Amino acid sequence: MLFLLATPEYNNVQSNTTKVKVHLRSGVAEILEQHQDLMGKVENNIIEIETNSENKIEKILYILQDAVFVVSNQGLDTTIENQGTGVYVYAKRVKEINSSISVDAVSKEFEQKTNELEAERAKVTDGGDKVLTSKIILLEDEIEFLKKVVLVVKELKS
């Protein structure tokens, strides 16, 4: 099964995926080979995939922001040898959660972005008026995402 995860800054393709677990509004969907065509929004912004390489099953967890997914049995390339189930996930941001990710590193990134936001707000504050610039909006959005990443990583490490 093919798995494609794409964001503006990140792209990952796995061709040896055996299962994709995604949370939907109606519950958890486990997508296996020959799954029915499906499309939806990832509800809790977490997606888990299982891959099989060298007869070893590996689980990979991703935290996503504003993600949608499509399951298709047609595939992007319709030649006979490329037929099969494909799971395509498109998100605004992604963070891969693995054993090497550090809570401290993510917390430090969160603090850095928070400080950057405060500095940007201080620049535009004029006489007590708060003006929202596109940079402030983007920083707030990124901070919310990093807050979610910190919480998930802390939960997984405990």
Describe the structure.
The chain is of the alpha+beta class and 158 residues long. It has helices spanning 103-124, 134-157, and strands at residues 2-6, 11-14, 17-24, 27-31, 38-41, 46-53, 56-65, 68-72, 86-90, 93-97. The protein has two domains: 2-97, ATP Synthase, domain 1 (Sandwich); 103-157. The chain contains two helices and ten strands, in the order ββββββββββαα. It starts with a strand and ends with a helix. The relative contact order is 0.15.
In short:
The chain is α+β, with helices and mostly antiparallel strands and 158 residues long. It is 29% helix and 37% strand.
Key features of this structure:
ATP Synthase, domain 1, five-stranded mixed sheet, elongated, 10 strands
Sheet having the most strands? 5 strands, mixed
CATH architecture of the largest domain: Sandwich
The overall pLDDT, averaged over residues, is 83
Number of domains: 2
Give the CATH level 1 class of the largest domain: Mainly Beta
Helix proportion range: 25-40%
Low-confidence stretches: none
Task: Strand order, main sheet: write it out.
Answer: 2-1-9-8-5
* Number of continuous helical runs: 2
Q: What do we call the CATH topology of the largest domain?
A: ATP Synthase, domain 1
For the CA atoms, what is the radius of gyration?
19 Å
End-to-end CA span: 32 Å
Beta-strand percent range: 35-45%
What's the helix-strand series?
EEEEEEEEEEHH
CATH superfamily membership of the largest domain: F0F1 ATP synthase delta/epsilon subunit, N-terminal
The count of strands amounts to 10
Structural class: alpha+beta
